[in-house]
């Protein structure tokens, strides 16, 4: 089934919102995510429903059908592969690639997507640490938790962000925090919920609450 760029953006937004909540998604949430009017969302949901891509259940919101999920995941796969290509092969920073990938994710060719995946060495995660779905739509798993859930003495590795906004990524750049950074938790600061950590070079760094609550990390295994 052919879908328009706008329809794909809606399906991707519904997938993202429902994955985080585990529930149906309200039209207001979709409108907020896509920065559009609720009336426009209602019209699009009706169109997507007629195509069999979403189901709307009163009081429960919008859910993707199996076919709708396939379309959404296919677009997400392309988006994250293109982000990986832009960072790994063209030297873009991780805060520069989202808008470019938004344009590239709508390229139709499945063969191009598969060749891109192979060219990149079949990466499992994109430059922001998000899982890249495989050709069959399955997502690789990796246990990650927010940095704020760890305590003094814990050694961790930065593996992702829960906030991938340009402003947040640029802030992490200034703090020299990137995927793969090794840290040891020194102290939680109760006053402002910040955290004192130690870097691999032995230097200590104070991370504000806004970073501690948005940085995804994996426990370092000794």
UniProtKB/TrEMBL annotation:
Residues forming coiled coils: none
Pfam families: Fe_dep_repr_C, Fe_dep_repress, FeoA
Regions crossing the membrane: none
Keyword terms of this UniProt record: Activator, Cytoplasm, DNA-binding, Manganese, Repressor, Transcription, Transcription regulation
Keyword presence, Cytoplasm: yes
Subcellular location: Cytoplasm
Cellular component terms per the entry's GO annotation: cytoplasm
Top-rank taxon, per record: Bacteria
Function: In the presence of manganese, represses expression of mntH and mntS. Up-regulates expression of mntP.
Homology family: Belongs to the DtxR/MntR family.
The name this protein goes by in its record: Transcriptional regulator MntR
Organism of origin: Phaeocystidibacter luteus
Record lineage: Bacteria, Pseudomonadati, Bacteroidota, Flavobacteriia, Flavobacteriales
């Amino acid at each position: 089934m052919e879908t328009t760029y706008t329809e794909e953006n809606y399906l991707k937004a519904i997938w993202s919102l429902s994955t985080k909540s585990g529930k149906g998604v309200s039209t207001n949430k979709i409108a907020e995510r896509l920065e559009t009017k609720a009336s426009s969302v209602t019209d699009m949901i009706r169109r997507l429903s007629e195509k069999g891509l979403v189901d709307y259940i009163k009081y429960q919101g919008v859910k993707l059908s199996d076919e709708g999920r396939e379309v959404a995941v296919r677009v997400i796969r392309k988006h994250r592969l293109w982000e990986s290509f832009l960072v790994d092969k063209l030297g873009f920073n991780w805060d520069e690639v989202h808008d470019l990938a938004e344009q590239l994710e709508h390229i139709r060719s499945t063969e191009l997507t598969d060749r891109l995946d192979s060219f990149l060495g079949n990466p499992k995660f994109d430059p922001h640490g998000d899982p890249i779905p495989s050709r069959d739509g399955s997502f690789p798993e990796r246990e990650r938790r927010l940095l704020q859930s760890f305590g003094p003495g814990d050694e961790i590795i930065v593996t992702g962000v829960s906030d991938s906004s340009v402003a947040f990524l640029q802030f992490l750049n200034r703090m020299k925090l990137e995927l793969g950074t090794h840290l040891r938790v020194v102290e939680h600061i109760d006053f402002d919920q910040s955290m004192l950590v130690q870097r691999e070079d032995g230097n200590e760094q104070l991370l504000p609450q806004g970073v501690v609550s948005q940085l995804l990390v994996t426990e370092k295994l000794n």
